[in-house]
Amino acid sequence: MDMVKQGYKQTEIGVIPEDWEMFTIRDLITLLTDYDANGSFSSVAENVKSYNYPEYAWYVRSTDLENNTDLSNVKYVDKASYSFLKKTSLFGGELLFLKRGDIGNVYLFEMKTKRATLAPNLYLLKLNDISSSKYLYQYFISETGQKQLKRKNAGSTLGALYKDDVKSILIPLPPLAEQQAIATALSDADAWIESLEQLIAKKRLIKQGAMQELLTPKEDWEVKKLGEVLSHRPDYGINAPAVEFSSSLPTYIRITDIGRDGTFMNGNKVSVDSLLSEMYVLQDGDICVARTGASVGKSYFHSFLDGQYVFAGFLIRLRVDSKVLYSRFLFYLTKSKNYDNFIISNSMRSGQPGINSNELEAFIIPFPPLLEQTRIATILSDMDTELEALDNQLAKARQIKQGMMQELLTGRVRLV
């Protein structure tokens, strides 16, 4: 048996500091209620009317909270409905738990309108003065808190969380001052993450606008079919099984390895071990296109910096005639609305969507002189590089927040 460090104690949910106490949610709340508390199904149906435009009060649904809504797609209730729903009025600072469905979703309610009231499928928790709602929110979105919620749901085949389940959840609670210090530190980390998310969203919109402007054909641009600007016909990848990744073998790229932005996702690298692999090795500037499935048309640009890649059978390789077309310019054309529409119109068939090399060769390519192609592709590539750096920064910020939660919510690191 492991020895417990001096100043700490063993509890039902793990080791915590000696001056922390274990409570159930029942000990920490002044109210646990839900939409059903306002009346019977028939009386609610008769007395509550919701609207898709601004009215007296915001009718708060889990989808609003999940999307961190800006109130552009929410529902409202009128004054009479709000009065009828008085048992579940919201004022800010309440904890909201999802009752059914994706159990584990927890929200700290923030007022964004003058008045708000709870919609169905959520529990409303109001806390007493020995606990901080911000601290409990951080606890419940942590790995330990999520495990507790999932465990309560494990006994239900319906994916439901009941009031008694909520009340019986155990919470390790530091003194109030430490709760507030922990909540502030983690909230600051959340604010940093949110600011990065907003910056990335803004940069993506700027890039979309730049693509729209830069890739819109001008009067002096040439227009040809894709098949006319390739060095040879599109070819299909190797039909071979994936093997465990090895640095002595080529990396195997499959449809599932390509991200939405056309980058290779390193999360689950595999290799391919075949005598025929050499025929399917990608060269610098090759573009691979998914030819079947829900992601049909998704494209990947290969750089020699990526290493030796062999492409799989559900991908089509495009290799441009470099005297006519700059390959990265073509890659950005495969991210355009025009390309998306082409893929949709050509891949609609019975069963699974798909596109073949003949259909792909018919895609119309508008393009300027090579020098201008290079300029356009460089601008967009620089934007991608900036976005990649921000994505990495965001991933690091999330990792840091996760580490902070593990240290602060267990008392391994003390702030007070």
Distance between the termini: 30 Å
Strand order of the largest sheet: 5-7-6-11-8
Which spans of ≥5 residues are poorly predicted at pLDDT below 50? none
Rg (C-alpha, Å)? 28 Å
User: Which percent band covers the strand fraction?
Assistant: 15-25%
Q: CATH topology of the largest domain, what is it called?
A: Adenine-n6-DNA-methyltransferase TaqI, Chain A, domain 2
| Level-1 CATH class name of the largest domain | Alpha Beta
Structural class: alpha+beta
CATH superfamily of the largest domain: DNA methylase specificity domains
- The CATH architecture of the largest domain can be given as Alpha-Beta Complex
Helical content stands at 25-40%
Largest pleated sheet: 5 strands, mixed
Apparent shape: globular
Number of strands: 23
How many DSSP helices?
12
Mean pLDDT: 93
Indicate how many domains the architecture comprises.
3
GO biological process, one term: DNA restriction-modification system
Coiled coil: 380-407
Domain Type I restriction modification DNA specificity: 17-201, 219-389
GO molecular function: DNA binding
What do you see in this structure?
The protein has 416 residues and is of the alpha+beta class. Helices cover 36% and strands 20% of the residues. It contains twelve helices and 23 strands. The protein has helices at residues 25-28, 41-47, 62-66, 79-84, 133-141, 143-153, 163-167, 176-215, 327-333, 337-347, 357-361, 370-408, and strands at 8-11, 14-17, 21-24, 29-34, 50-51, 57-60, 75-77, 89-90, 95-98, 106-108, 116-118, 122-127, 170-173, 222-225, 235-236, 242-244, 251-253, 270-272, 287-290, 299-301, 309-311, 315-318, 364-367. Strands 5-7-6-11-8 form a five-stranded mixed beta sheet. It has a four-stranded antiparallel beta sheet with strand order 4-12-9-10. It has a four-stranded antiparallel beta sheet with strand order 15-22-19-20, with helices on one face. The model has no long low-confidence stretch (mean pLDDT 93).
